[in-house]
Design goal:
- The complex is a heterodimer of chains A (about 110) and B (about 110).
- Chain A is mainly beta and about 110 residues long.
- Chain A has no helices and eleven strands.
- The radius of gyration of chain A is 13 Å and the shape is globular.
- In chain B, the strands form three sheets. In chain B, strands 2, 5, 6, 10, 11 and 12 form a six-stranded mixed beta sheet that branches. A four-stranded antiparallel beta sheet of chain B has the order 3-9-8-7, with no helix packed on it. In chain B, strands 1-4 form a two-stranded antiparallel sheet.
- In chain B, about 0% of the residues lie in helices and about 55% in strands.
- In chain B, a hairpin with a 5-residue loop joins strand 7 and strand 8.
- The chains are: A mainly beta (about 110), B mainly beta (about 110).
């Protein structure tokens, strides 16, 4: 099992450019999440998808869009990147049932917007 | 909505000494509680979790945490730390079927 995979690992964008961060999980989890991590602020939820076909806003959704392509894949799109979106982005998945409620995290994408 | 406060942003400690990383939460409903560890340039790994039952939870790498409902706390402890425990530690809280909220993190530095 690869667990949760993310691409790319690193990306540099100019202000105004767009890009899509890809995430896939092979654990057959229903729920998937996108977070951003900034120094001293922990992880903040951008969007989540409780199940295939549904998406909901988290704490900091402005400037982002998501697509739950199928049960395995959940992508995050920046339509017009801004320097404030410089961050490390993590995708996670979970089952949210029975005795398993923890989230499993990918290795992250380091994004710099200049 | 639930929230998490990690009371120490940095904790320096000498090798083989005990350590406690403090976490308080607030929520109007029952919650699940978690501790995650993040090593440099990596994602988060689960250390331990509290869902229900015994309030003392044991996790990986010799860590344990105690759920205290009256004090709304979930402090993480280890009786003797190693250099390899140097990392950032995150406390998190979630409602069933809802999203998870993380604390700001505690950077544990173990010195020789």
């Amino acid at each position: 099992n690869a667990g949760v995979t993310q691409t790319p690992k690193f990306q540099v964008l100019k202000t105004g450019q767009s890009m899509t961060l890809q995430c896939a999980q092979d654990m057959n989890h229903n729920s998937m999440y996108w977070y951003r991590q900034d120094p001293g602020m922990g992880l903040r939820l951008i969007y989540y998808s409780a199940s295939e076909g549904t998406t909901d806003k988290g704490e900091v959704p402005n400037g982002y869009n998501v697509s739950r392509l199928n049960k395995r894949e959940f992508s995050l799109r920046l339509e017009s990147a801004a320097p404030s979106q410089t961050s490390v982005y993590f995708c996670a998945s979970s089952e949210m049932s029975g005795s398993s409620h923890e989230q499993y995290f990918g290795p992250g994408t380091r994004l710099t917007v200049t | 909505a639930q929230s998490v406060t990690q009371l120490d942003s940095q904790v320096p400690v000498f090798e083989e000494a005990p350590v406690e990383l403090r976490c308080n939460y607030s929520s109007s409903v029952s919650v699940y509680l978690f501790w995650y560890v993040q090593y440099p340039n990596q994602g988060l790994q689960l250390l331990l979790k509290y869902l229900s039952g015994s309030t003392l939870v044991k996790g990986i790498n010799g860590f344990e945490a105690e759920f205290n409902k009256s004090q709304t706390s979930f402090h993480l402890r280890k009786p003797s730390v190693h250099i390899s425990d140097t990392a950032e530690y995150f406390c998190a809280v979630s409602n069933p079927l809802r999203d998870m909220r993380f604390g700001a993190g505690t950077r544990l530095t173990v010195k020789p």
